[in-house]
Amino acid sequence: MRFGVSHVLDAIERRITTDPTAAGGVVDLTEIVRLADLDGGRPAHLLRLGLVIDALARHMSDGGVAVYPVAQRALLSDTDLTANERMVIRRWSDDGKVEVLRMGGPPAIQRIREVAALTGLPLLSRQPGGYPGLTYAPVPTANGPALSPQQLGPGPAAPAAALGRKWRCPEPGCASFGPPGAREPDPFGPQSDEPPGEPGSQPPPQLVNGVPQCPRHGAPLRDTGPVPRAVTVVIRVKGVAWHRLVVTEAAPVTVGRSPEEPGGVGIGLALDERGLRWVSRSHVRLELHGSALQVTDTSTNGTTVLLRTGPVESVRRAPLVRGEGTTLGEWDTVELYEGVELARADRAAGPIAGAPTNSVMADAPTQAIRLS
């Protein structure tokens, strides 16, 4: 049983991050561990984070989606959690995978709203507190925990300008804003194929009266210069996430059958025979200008932008021909070929039946969460 729980916690660890470009939602871990109605178990359990990750994966039809967890420091001494669970959270914090806030600072529920506003990530919480952006509440259903839409936005324009600067914390070895390579690989954590070093994108700073501060230590952050803002785009095939890519202000990305441009993303393996003839070698170019994601058609046969004002709203088709471009809205998608679309990775219409989720809870021992 203990081995099984440990195995599940390792699987959860692979799906948590404080890199906004790798996440699909932001959560208050202090809230999530106490959502006892998700499983009917003891007052607090760390495995409930796995239930929420699986619910997000089903909703996004993305078996690799991660969450950005924030926690109150008091959670590290919460006796409703087991000693092992508290140790795991501390290790995740030391590794920069969970943002544990300083004592006396703004509460975690306020911080996750700030992270969501600055990054554009969906807020996964039952306490939106008037936040206007995309919000889902984790709720129990007959088929297991799911995400119930609470607010569809629009939220503030994101990524925010604060993410266009590189920040440094004066605290040595800060897991969020330390120097490159400050965090050593954890010998007791699950093995990762990623090289050690900083995440692909820093966490957003905490803005206190407009002054960027470290949410872990409360210290003012030092601005070390500009850094390109970034957004994550997903390629979906019949609604299911097939590949994720990051577009930055410094590096446009070309997507097509087999693009020759540096950093281009080829989708030939996702196409049938007719699609291989329809999709050009270099079909579209994605560019980020501030918080605006733009698409330009570079194809022979043209591209269609599917304009939506919400996840289930009616679609208006806007064709693009070679050389034409447009700015994508929050819920817009780019149709390269029938059933093959590009969109913001953190926006999805809802679950696709039969989509693989790579459940982190698949190996959880039966009744593990309900054990006291």
Question: Mind explaining what this structure looks like?
Answer:
The chain is α+β, with helices and mostly antiparallel strands. Among the domains are: 41 residues, no CATH class; 115 residues, Tumour Suppressor Smad4 (Sandwich). Helix content is 16%, strand content 27%. It is built from six helices and 21 strands. The strands form five sheets. The chain has a six-stranded mixed β-sheet, with helices on both faces. The chain is globular and about 60 Å long. About 3% of the residues have low confidence.
Short structural summary:
The chain is an alpha+beta fold and 372 residues long. Helices cover 16% and strands 27% of the residues. The protein has six helices and 21 strands.
* CA(first)-CA(last) distance: 13 Å
CATH 2nd-level architecture of the domain at 230-344: Sandwich
Proportion of beta-strand residues: 25-35%
> Which consecutive residue ranges, at least 5 long each, have pLDDT under 50?
183-189, 194-199
Strand tally: 21
**Helical residue percent band:** 10-25%
Strand order across the largest sheet: 3-2-1-4-5-6
Q: What does the main sheet amount to?
A: 6 strands, mixed
Determine the mean pLDDT: 92
Q: Which structural class matches the secondary elements?
A: alpha+beta
Shape, please? Answer: globular
**CATH topology assignment of the domain at 230-344:** Tumour Suppressor Smad4
Return the CATH class of the domain at 230-344: Mainly Beta
Order of helices and strands: HEHHEHEHEEEEEEEEEEEHEEEEEEE
Nearest-angstrom radius of gyration?
Answer: 21 Å
How many helical elements?
6
